[in-house]
Amino acid sequence: MPHSGRTKTEQVVLEFLYKAAELIVQSRVNFQAEPGLRRGNRRARFNLDIDEVQMVRDAMAPWKEDVQLPLAIDIFWEGDGQRVLLERWSVTFAEDDVPSNAHLGSTQDVIQQLKEICKRISVLLRALFSFMRQLPAHRLFVQSYPSMLSYQLRTAPSNEATRAFEAQRVAASGYSFLPIATPFGLLKVAAVYRRDCDQFTEEQEQSWFLLVLQLQHRYQVLHNQTHL
User: Of 4, 12, 3, 9, nearest to 122 (Cα)?
Assistant: First the structure.
């Protein structure tokens, strides 16, 4: 297979990794509150119209060099000096164990296959978007102002997630999307997530209540000063 066929495939894979990471992070972290946030262009790649978050792409420099690095995206709840893992997402591109006939085709054959692969990626990203809004942590995101959720991008095998939740002795569930076959490997997205986030919701509501009281107090002080 000509080198250009692999190069074009890896370009599509890298953009998929970017988009998946941006979708996951923006579905959990309120970037409106981030000072000095630099956003890239808003491009509807894979027919998905979401912001390009430059800080996410900058953090993914290692994947720009090697798209086969396993990508782990951890979502944390932070409060009262704690940092608790809520979700771990795994996004990977791994070589298929059984070579397909596509390896024997031309660069033009690969380009034709990539057109169909982009359509499948589009469907997968939409499914991911919907799935994230059904998970327990979504309520925390919706109610999180100021934001109490954070994220971390790192290289880690997918089986690490299950061990992390087992160490915390909390109930967790997992889900894997159907992989997408490319001429040079499989695209996979999977998640392990904490099933019960109620305790964090309660603490978040208390923090919100205290914030409201502080704002009311400041307003009252300013009101009194203007009427002196």
Answer: 12
- The residue range of the domain holding 104 is 3-197
pTM, 2 dp? 0.80
- Mean pLDDT, the chain, integer: 81
Of residues 202 and 87, more confidence is placed in 87
- Separation between Cα atoms, residue 225 and residue 4, nearest integer Å: 70
Structural tokens at position 43: 């491009």
| 222 domain residue, yes or no | no
Other C-beta atoms lying within 10 Å of the C-beta of residue 66: 11
Tally of domains within the chain = 1
The three-class DSSP label of residue 185 is: strand
Whether 212 has a pLDDT exceeding 50, the answer reads: no
Token duo for residue 164 = 């992390």
Distance CA(228)–CA(224), nearest Å, equals 6
Q: Which tens digits make up the pLDDT trace of 53-80?
A: 999 999 999 999 999 999 999 999 987 7
Interatomic CA distance for residues 110 and 141, integer angstroms: 40
Tell me, yes or no, whether 34 lies in a domain.
yes
What CATH number corresponds to the domain at position 64? Answer: 3.30.900.10
